[in-house]
Amino acid sequence: MEKREEIRKIQFTGNSSYTVSLPKQWIMELGLKQGDQIKMVRKDSSTLEIYPPKFERKFQKKEDATIEIDGDETSSIVRKLISLYFLGYKTINVKPKMGRLSPIQRNTIKEAVKRMLMGSEIISDSSGGITVQVLVNLLELSIDGAFKRMIHLAKSMSSDAILAMKENNFDIAQEVINTDDEVDRFGFYIIRQLKIAIQNEHMLKEMGFKNARDCLGYRLVVKNIERTGDHAALIANDILEFRKPIKKEIVEKIEEMNEFSLAVLDDACLALFKEDYAHAEKTIEKTNEIAKYEKKVRDVSKLLKDEEEIYRIRRMTENIRRISEYASDIAEIVLNMNIEKSLKKIV
To answer: Which end of the chain is more exposed for a tag (fewer CB within 10 A), N or C?
Structure first.
């Protein structure tokens, strides 16, 4: 295993200066040589960090990217933009291979930047090309901070979708669908940060990760939260599609089921932030209770004679049940990320 710690004496060199030697193996592995500069940071009253600026250069080398698109490309432009955003480029130029960008292409790019790429702005826009710049400071919005806001939005979507169903309120239903874009924006931002952290050891520590494996865990959690928002949007779509109220007694049971799903989602995310193995285990066991709430909805809906309404209720309960399953998946990820802590306690 690679040695990560060394004990070295502080030497006094005169003129009020002190020196500490660095292990030769470390210097060789990092590709440093005599005369290179290193950066020293005092983090608090008892911590010093030393790292080569080469780490910063490695991180910053992905400054600009240029993509050339065909005259008939539309949806594929968005996929390319998202991929380059994930890879950490600060400036993305979109240019036509021949001729100029069509109005549809320009609108597609501008809409994608607005709806999907957090911290990005269009700084140049013409028929000859569009330039997108990522302005957000990488450490300004922490992954934990972005993740908590993402969870809050997804939960609000789910609660508002049920409220829209309860009141047969089309405005609230439409707002739920619109909010799904915000959830995705936070998801894309977090994935971008995770990819940068994996590629750069210094940024990994700065973002609060112990190792690259935790980044994979967070990536899977983000996907589950995105899907939570998607299922809330599906419920809202149902309200706009059928535009018919559902009976009050059934709405009450669906509301209870949804509240339970959001409660176990909260528990799973709390276990994630606390890195609590035992709490995650309890959450997985608790999610099995969703069957009890689903049965209550089925029992009430058996009295219905309207096939369309029965179909709608079945779809809604399926969407809500999936949210509780995502909570269980998140808790499972927490177990995988913290299993070693559990082993240490046993030993």
So the answer is: N
Question: Which CATH entry fits the domain spanning 59-134: 3.30.110.10, 3.40.50.300, 3.30.750.24, 2.50.20.10?
Answer: 3.30.110.10
Q: 339 pLDDT band (50/70/90 cuts)?
A: confident
CB 125 within 8 A of CB 154: no
Amino acid at 57: R
Task: Answer yes or no: are the C-beta atoms of 30 and 55 closer than 8 Å.
Answer: no
- Whole-Å CA distances, 30 to 36, 58, 182: 11, 12, 40
Q: How far apart are CA 132 and CA 137, in angstroms?
A: 15
Architecture of 143-346 per CATH?
Up-down Bundle (1.20)
Span 278-334, pLDDT tens digits = 999 999 999 999 999 999 999 998 888 888 889 999 999 999 999 999 999 999 999
User: Which residue, among 116, 91, 119, has the nearest Cα to 187 in the 3D structure?
Assistant: 116
* Domain spans of the chain, in order of start: 11-55, 59-134, 143-346
User: How far is C-alpha 36 from the geometric centre of its chain's CA atoms?
Assistant: 37
Q: Give whole-number Cα distances, 170 to 115, 148, 167, 174, 237, in Å.
A: 22, 28, 9, 6, 9
Burial class (CB in 10 A: 0-12, 13-18, 19+), 125: middle
DSSP state at residue 344: H
Chain-centroid distance of CA 127 in Å reads 33
State mean pLDDT over 137-166: 87
